[in-house]
Structures are given as C-alpha cells and as structure tokens.
Predict the structure.
Amino acid sequence: MLRAPNENEKAVPRHFDPALINDPFDDPGLYVDLVFEKRALLFDLGDLGRLSPRKMLRISDVFVTHLHMDHFAGFDQLLRRLLGREMTLGVYGPRGIIDAVEHKLRAYSWNLIGGYDGNLTFRVTEMDESGRTSSASFSGRTQFARRDEEKGQLSEGTLLKESGIQVRATTLDHGLPALAFVLEERAHINIWRNRLNAMGLAVGPWLRKFKEATLKGADDQSPINVAWANAEGAKPDSLPFGLLKKEIMKTSSGRKIAYVVDCAYTERNIERIVKLAEGADTLFIEGGFLECDSVAAAARRHLTARQAGTIARLARVKRLVTFHYSPRYKGQGAELAREAQDAFLSG
Ligand SMILES: [Zn+2]
C-alpha cells in the first residue's frame, strides 16, 4: 500500500506505541499512541481505570469488538473524562453499538450541559457482516440527541482511512458478531535530497509526478520529465523512471498491529483472522484457556492459548502477545503465555 506524501514530509516514519491497558487477567483493551499526531486510538472499552487522564484525553477514536460488558463498560469512564471538551470522538463497533451508545447517554440528565465551554460529540459507526455501515452523531449541544447519518458500504472493512493510517475490521463469530481490527500505517515514499542534489536535479513539481508514477507501478523505461538545478549545458528533459527510483527514492513499509479477542476456533474465524492479521508486526490476541480446557473454551466461544498461537503462526505475524486470560488461571499466566508461544514457534 503506497501513497503520495506531501513534499515536506520528513523521512522519519510515524510511530505507533501500542500497550495493553490492563493486566492480562483484567478487562481487555489496547491503547495505541500515535506519537507524532499527539493522539491515540483505543481498542475496546473495558475498565479504563488504569489510563491516566492525560492518556484518555488523547483518544480520538475507539474501536469496540462487541458489547459484552468487559469490552464496553468503560464507556462511562471515558464520557466522564471527556465531558466539557471541545472534540468529536469516533466510536466504531458491530451492529447495535449506535443503540448501545444512545442508551448509555440517555441514562443521565443533561439539562445543565448548555453551560459547558466545550462541546463533546460522539460520532458512532457500526458495521454489519457484509461491510454495510450506519452512522449516527450525538452532540452535547442537543443534549446528546441522536442524529442518524448516511449509510455506507465499506470495501475491505476499512472503517477509518486517513493519509497516514487506516483501520480495517472483519466480523468473527463469538456466539454473536464480534469485530477484529487491524491498524496499518501506510508505506512512505521518500526522496533522498542529498542524492537529488548530487545528481544536479532541482526540487519541483516533477517530484510529485515521479511519486505518482511510483504509485502506479510505472515501467522502468518510462521517461520522467525532470528539472535541473543548473539548466546550462546539454541536459536531457527526462530520465528513465528506473534510474530515478534507484538513485533518489526510499520506500519504508508501514507497520501493522492486529487486535483480536473473543471468538470461537472455527474454520471461518481462523481464515478471517489470518487474512486480516497477515504479516502483522504484533498480533494481540485472546488466549485465555489452557488447551486441557478446550471444551470449556469452545462452550464460551473463546480461543485457547494454543489455538491463539496456531493462528499467529498461520498469519505469519512477527510477534505474538496473548491476553484476556480467564480468572480461573490466576497464578498461571506464564503457563498460558508459554502454551501460545510454543504453538506459535512450532512447525
Ligand atoms: Zn465476549
């Protein structure tokens, strides 16, 4: 996935800083600080008690896997913290999340909210199994009255698409539809300015055309019109794309983080997770049951540690982190982690 960066873009890649909010035995939740954007994304809304106010205030978008309480009860904590701030919070989740947010907001009285300086707005988007979306907004200005917005159809489950990052989702079976998410950084095309100078070439609009040619996968022989720093002497109007690519271009691939919780070990789920998480730098995945209790895990539509490790291996991720451990194993966290890693590294 490539995009055309703007001319001023620095060669420094964006930086994701993902961290689980809680101990693996407590509510699941992943906080991803987008360091250079001074904001953060949150995956799942369980207990947020361990997130500092400063961290909560950085959250711009929240992605909820499903509406079991341990994944959504933190909505109130976030609402409490953000109230009175001038901001719009994006909330994304499976079918039913618009109603769920509406009910949460309706549980309180808002007759005095007009006196607040900042206006907090929630913009909620839900995705069904076939990628159809519905959205609704709830603005503090209207005492959080629901305003339905347009419906849409996603391609590839892309819920959030910005110039530098995107978040995609797929629907898994957990006895109910639950979403799994992947956060991807777009690849960067950068120009080596020192090499450009060394070749006697000038910075100019032609660089944008060159980057566009890169995005289109141009043929190495295609001529690219160039600008020279010093136009004197016999210099060609164009240079071959392949030569420029070799001399002045640097591509850095984007990072990828996958977040998968609460799903049964079914062929369909495995296939969907593998497709979504393929090659991820880190896969955060539930693995809360020991394999000896696989019957209990299956009855609750959850993965065992070994199943999580197997999925990570199939998806060829670089790093595996398991969490969302069942409280029945308190004191056996290391064993759960080891079963997953063994399956990940085997074969
Ligand atoms: Zn659940």
